[in-house]
Known about the structure:
It is a single chain. This protein has 375 residues and is of the alpha/beta class. Helices cover 50% and strands 13% of the residues. It has 14 helices and eight strands. The strands form two sheets. A four-stranded parallel beta sheet has the order 2-1-3-4, sandwiched between helices. A four-stranded parallel beta sheet has the order 6-5-7-8, sandwiched between helices. The longest helix is centred in the middle third of the chain and has 25 residues, at 159-183. The radius of gyration is 20 Å and the shape is globular. The two termini are 33 Å apart. Iron/sulfur cluster (SF4) binds at residues 37, 74, 76-77, 101, 103-104, 239, 296, 325, 328, 330-331.
Amino acid sequence: MVDLMENLALLEAACKNPRAQMEHYLAQGKRVVGCFAPYAPEELVHAAGMIPMGLWGGQTELKLAKSYLPAFACPIMQANMEFGLNGTYKGMSAVIIPAICDTLRCMTQNWRFGVPSIQMVPIVYPQNRKLPASLDYLISEFEQVQVVLATATGQMMKEKSLCETIKIYNEHNAVMREFSNEAVKHLDLITPLVRHYVMKSAWFFEKSEHTAIVKAIISGLRELPSYEFTGKKVILSGITCEPDELLKILKENNIAVAADDLAHESRQYRTDTPMSGGGGLRRLAMQWMARYGCSLIHEDGKPRGGIISELCKKTGAAGVINCLMKFCDPEEYDIPYVEKDIRAAGYSCMTMEIDSLNSSYEQVRTRIQTFSEIL
Length: 375
Ligand code: SF4
């Protein structure tokens, strides 16, 4: 139990102070590359011997970013721009920006001019994933990322190390899925906030290090008897569910997170990279073609609502909270379909706006309280 609590505290500390994690790696002589949310190909960074770190915004007061972004850009990108401009990311060798939505497309240009001290590496993913040409196109994008990264950092990856990295990432995916399955049996200990720390901290560790810590947490949980949770269980869906105060409000209302469909959390671990089918870059491209259930990825038939309903059934969740990122067009387009399918499957559903730059939670507290009563 002591080890379990120590490991959970370690991950919480990384979430509360990612800068300290970055300093830790820089002190070891490692280069750190920022990976914009979501789907930057961090395997290419890892395989070149560098540390990829997730950039998912945070709580800050906007002062400088307003000169670059309109007020209707999402809070994640507003915060990332502010951190880039005010020096919070100083020490990073480069950032990778996947131009996967309109805001991210603008970010590539804003970053290039606003933060010239940190090299920006863009990547454009194909949305028509049925054409064989899309695979070749994505491989050429990865090659381009490799070249620009190598020019900025002097570190070039080798095919052998990419294959090793893919194994490390697949193992990490599996361990994170295992954690999610185990966590739901210990909802006394794995509160919404603790669960979030385990998931979020993955963005601030070298992946095999994170795998080792989460494996130890899973072992610790397995030594404990299962806990019979008597409150309400929900699934969280969306881009992120932050800041911490929101998750505390869930706990206050005796609501536990049974599983999630957040781009920041479990969506990252849903799809492994195939272990055969060509070289490392080709297989990474195949992983993109196999991803599903995300508002940022074009799919016929919009299966996300069905996927979430299945999660409810599997975990015993009574309902779903859609965490709708403020000003996020891809999510706004998805929500009507998602809500309709979830309700048709017989589950309750509420949508709450996520704005990590906001510091007032009374409205959302009332909404969650009401939702807990109808669950
Ligand atoms: S997908 Fe949504 S949350 Fe992510 S960068 Fe684009 S607008 Fe922001």
